[in-house]
C-alpha cells in the first residue's frame, strides 16, 4: 500500500491492529470468576469483600412489577364545560329550528338524557377499545385535582350515547321525530386519557418495588471449592458480580482500563512485530503478507470479544486452529505457531478460565504444526482437523479429572462444542481456496496438484508437444534443485517449469524438439519465423489464463525469455545482411525480465537445458562451457538485472546445472550379448 510513492511502515499496521482490538475489548471491569447453577465451584473459599445487596433476578422483579400493576387503574380527566356548552347549543337550536320539528316534551327528554350521559362520561372509541383490550374494569377520573373511581362499563362513545337516547325514549315519544332532531350534533367526548398522570403514578408504583431481597455482610462466607452452586448461592454470586462491575465504572476508571488494555495488547503485538523483523524479513517487508497475518489475529479476537460480551455461544465452538492452518498453508510452521500463540494470548484476556483456554489452544496449535509438517495434499487439512478434535477431547478430559477427580462433574457438553469446532475446522479446505484468490497466494498444496502430470493441461502438452514436455521435465529438475540450494521456493519453480512452454501447443511443429522430418520454417522468412517462435509466450499466457492458472505460474510464462532476442533468427539475418539495419523489435520477446529468484532460475535453466541438447559430446568441459556461456550472456544482456540473486547465488546455480546435466546425460555401458 503506497500513498504518492510513500510506503507505509509495517509498524503502523501493528499499532492500528492493537487499537482496533483494544477498542472492542469488554468495557466493564471483568469479574474474575465464572460460575453456573448446579455446577461445582472451581475456586477457593470466597467471602464477601464488603456489604452488598442480594439482587432479585430479572424474572422475580418482572413478576413483582406485574403484581403491582395488576390493580393499577389508568387516569382520565373530565371536562364539565362541554356539557353546559352542548346544552346551551341545544336550547338555541330549539328556539330557532327544532321547535318546528319536535315539541317541548322532546326537548325536555333530550336535555335530561344529555345530563345523564355527560355525567357518566363520553370517551373516544379508540380509548374505550383500548381499555377493554387491556381488561381494565375501572378507571380513575380526575376532576378539580380529585380522583374518583369510575366503571368502564358506564362509559359511552358518541355512537353508543346516540343509540342510548333513541332506544330509551318513552313510549309517548316518536323515535322518528327524535332522529330528525340530529341529536348527535350535541354529543361530544368529555372524558380524555391523561397520559402524564398515568405515567407518573405508574412510575411511582414501580419505583417502590425493591430490587434486592436481602443483604450479605462483609466477611460472610459465600462458597468454597467443590461445593455445588444452588439457586441461592448463584444469586449471591450474580449480585456480587453486578456490584463489582458497577464499581469499575466511571469515566476516569474506564479510561485507565482502556489504557491498560491498549498497552497490554500493544506489548503482545510488539512480540509479533519483532518476530517478523528478526526471523521473517521477507514477510516483514511485504505489506500484503503483513496485512494477511494481522487479519488472522484480528478476526479471532473480535469474534471472541463479541462472543464473551453478548454471550452468543461457548468460546470453544470458535475454530481458533483454523488460523494457524491457513498461515501454515501459505507460509511456514514456525510463523503459524507464533501467530497462533499471539492470538490465543490476546483472546485469553477476555475469556473465562483463561488457563484452561491457553492450555487447550496451545496444544491445538502444536498439533497443527506437527500434522502439517509436510503439506502436499488438501486431505491433510481434514486429517489435521480430526487430530485437533482428538487433542481437545483428551486434554479437556484429563484436565477435568485432574481438577475434580470425579467423572460425574465433567461437563460433557464440552465434547459437543469440540465436535462443532471440528466441523468448522474442516472448512479450512474451502477457506484456503478463497484466500488464494483474494490475496493472490499460491499454496504448496496447489503447486503439488498443478505438478501432477495427469493434470489436463500437462496431459495435453505431453500429447501435443512430446518434445516440449520432455524439455519441461528436464528444466523442472534443474530449476528445482538450484532453487533449493539458494533458498528459493523449489516447488514453485518446479511447477512453473512444467507450464512455462505451454504456448507451444498452438504451433507445435515450429519448434525443433517436436519436429520429425519436415521443418516448416524453411518456407518462411527469418523475421516471420521469429514472430512465430516469440508468440509462444503470449499464446502461453492466454492458455494459462483460460485454464485459470495462478498468477505466480503465469509469471514464469511471461518471463522465461524476458526481453531477450530470438537469437537464432536474429543472428542469421544479421549474418546474411551485415550492412542492413534490422528492426530488433521483430526479434525481441515481450517480457518482462525476471523479477524474482524463482523466475530468474527458470530462465537460466530453460536456456541451459535447450542449448545442452546441441552438444555432440557430453563431457564435463563441454557442459561447463555451455552453462557459463549461457548464464554470462544473460547477465551481459541485462536480463537478470531486476532479480535479487547475488553473485554467489549465480555461481551456486551454475554448479548445480553442471552436476545435474552430467547426471542426466551420462553414458551407459553396453550390455554384452550372451555367447552361444
What does this protein look like?
The longest helix has 29 residues, at 251-279. The strands form four sheets. This protein has a four-stranded mixed β-sheet with strand order 7-6-5-8. Strands 1-2 form a two-stranded antiparallel ribbon. The protein has helices spanning 10-23, 58-70, 81-96, 104-120, 125-133, 158-167, 175-180, 195-207, 231-247, 251-279, 281-284, 287-310, 322-330, 333-348, 354-371, 379-404, 413-425, 428-439, 444-451, 456-464, 466-485, 490-499, 526-546, 551-559, 567-576, 597-612, 620-636, 647-664, and strands at 2-3, 6-7, 46-47, 52-55, 75-78, 138-143, 146-151, 191-193, 212-216, 221-223. With 676 residues, the chain is mostly helical. The protein has 28 helices and ten strands. Helices cover 60% and strands 5% of the residues. The radius of gyration is 44 Å and the shape is elongated. It starts with a strand and ends in a 12-residue tail after the last helix. Helix 26 (597-612) packs across helix 27.
Amino acid at each position: 500500500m503506497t500513498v504518492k510513492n510513500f510506503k507505509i511502515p509495517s509498524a503502523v499496521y501493528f499499532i492500528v491492529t492493537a487499537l482496533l482490538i483494544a477498542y472492542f475489548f469488554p468495557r466493564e471491569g471483568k469479574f474474575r470468576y465464572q460460575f453456573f447453577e448446579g455446577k461445582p465451584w472451581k475456586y477457593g473459599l470466597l467471602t464477601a469483600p464488603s456489604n452488598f445487596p442480594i439482587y432479585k433476578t430479572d424474572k422475580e422483579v418482572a413478576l413483582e412489577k406485574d403484581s403491582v400493576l395488576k390493580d393499577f387503574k389508568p387516569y382520565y380527566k373530565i371536562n364539565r364545560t362541554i356539557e353546559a356548552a352542548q346544552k346551551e347549543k341545544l336550547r338555541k337550536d330549539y328556539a330557532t329550528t327544532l321547535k318546528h320539528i319536535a315539541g317541548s316534551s322532546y326537548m325536555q327528554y333530550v336535555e335530561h338524557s344529555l345530563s345523564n350521559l355527560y355525567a357518566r362520561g363520553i370517551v373516544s372509541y379508540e380509548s374505550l377499545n383500548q381499555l377493554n383490550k387491556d381488561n381494565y374494569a375501572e378507571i380513575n377520573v380526575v376532576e378539580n385535582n380529585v380522583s374518583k373511581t369510575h366503571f368502564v362499563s358506564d362509559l359511552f362513545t358518541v355512537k353508543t350515547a346516540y343509540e342510548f337516547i333513541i332506544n330509551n325514549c318513552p313510549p309517548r315519544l316518536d323515535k322518528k321525530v327524535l332522529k330528525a332532531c340530529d341529536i348527535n350534533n350535541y354529543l361530544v367526548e368529555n372524558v380524555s386519557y391523561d397520559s402524564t398522570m398515568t405515567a407518573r403514578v405508574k412510575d411511582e408504583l414501580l419505583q417502590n418495588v425493591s430490587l434486592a431481597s436481602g443483604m450479605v455482610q462483609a466477611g460472610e462466607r459465600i462458597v468454597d471449592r467443590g461445593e455445588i452452586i444452588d439457586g441461592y448461592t448463584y444469586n449471591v454470586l450474580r449480585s456480587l458480580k453486578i456490584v463489582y462491575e458497577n464499581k469499575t465504572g466511571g469515566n476516569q476508571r474506564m479510561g485507565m482500563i482502556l489504557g491498560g488494555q491498549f498497552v497490554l495488547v500493544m506489548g503482545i503485538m510488539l512480540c509479533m512485530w519483532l518476530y517478523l523483523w528478526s526471523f521473517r524479513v521477507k514477510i516483514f517487508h511485504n505489506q500484503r503478507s503483513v496485512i494477511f497475518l494481522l487479519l488472522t489475529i484480528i478476526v479471532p479476537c473480535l469474534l471472541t470479544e463479541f462472543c464473551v460480551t453478548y454471550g452468543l455461544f461457548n468460546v470453544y465452538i470458535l475454530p481458533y486452529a483454523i488460523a494457524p492452518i491457513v498461515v501454515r498453508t501459505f507460509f511456514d510452521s514456525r510463523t503459524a505457531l507464533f501467530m497462533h500463540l499471539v492470538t490465543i494470548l490476546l483472546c485469553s484476556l477476555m475469556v473465562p478460565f483463561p488457563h484452561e483456554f491457553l492450555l487447550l489452544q496451545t496444544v491445538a496449535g502444536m498439533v497443527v504444526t506437527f500434522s502439517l509438517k509436510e503439506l502436499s495434499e488438501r486431505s491433510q487439512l481434514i486429517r489435521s482437523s480430526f487430530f485437533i478434535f482428538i487433542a481437545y477431547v483428551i486434554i479437556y478430559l484429563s484436565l477435568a479429572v485432574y481438577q475434580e477427580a470425579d467423572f460425574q462433574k465433567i461437563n460433557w457438553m464440552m465434547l459437543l462444542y469440540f465436535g462443532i469446532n471440528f466441523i468448522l475446522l474442516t472448512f479450512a479446505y474451502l477457506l484456503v481456496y478463497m484466500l488464494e484468490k483474494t490475496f493472490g497466494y499460491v499454496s504448496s498444496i496447489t503447486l503439488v496438484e498443478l505438478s501432477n502430470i495427469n493434470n489436463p493441461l500437462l496431459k495435453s502438452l505431453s500429447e501435443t508437444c512430446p518434445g516440449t514436455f520432455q524439455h519441461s521435465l528436464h528444466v523442472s529438475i534443474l530449476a528445482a534443485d538450484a532453487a533449493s540450494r539458494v533458498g528459493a521456493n523449489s516447488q514453485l519453480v518446479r511447477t512453473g517449469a512444467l507450464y512455462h512452454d505451454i504456448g507451444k501447443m498452438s504451433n507445435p511443429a515450429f519448434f525443433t524438439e517436436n519436429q520429425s522430418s519436415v521443418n516448416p520454417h524453411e518456407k518462411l522468412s527469418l523475421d516471420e519465423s521469429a514472430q512465430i517462435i516469440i508468440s509462444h509466450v503470449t499464446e502461453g499466457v492466454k492458455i494459462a489464463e483460460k485454464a485459470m492458472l495462478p498468477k505466480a505460474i503465469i509469471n514464469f510464462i511471461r518471463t522465461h525469455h524476458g526481453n531477450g532476442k530470438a537469437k537464432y533468427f536474429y543472428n542469421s539475418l544479421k549474418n546474411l545482411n551485415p550492412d542492413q539495419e534490422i528492426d530488433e523489435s521483430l526479434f525481441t520477446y515481450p517480457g518482462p525480465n525476471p523479477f524474482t529468484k524463482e523466475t530468474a532460475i527458470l530462465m537460466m535453466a530453460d536456456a541451459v537445458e535447450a542449448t545442452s541438447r546441441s552438444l555432440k559430446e557430453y563431457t564435463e568441459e563441454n557442459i561447463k562451457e555451455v552453462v557459463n556461456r549461457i548464464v554470462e550472456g544473460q547477465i551481459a544482456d541485462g536480463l537478470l538485472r531486476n532479480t535479487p540473486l547475488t553473485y554467489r547465488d549465480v555461481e551456486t546455480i551454475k554448479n548445480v546445472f553442471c552436476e545435474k546435466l552430467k547426471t542426466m546425460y551420462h553414458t551407459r555401458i553396453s550390455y554384452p550379448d550372451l555367447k552361444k
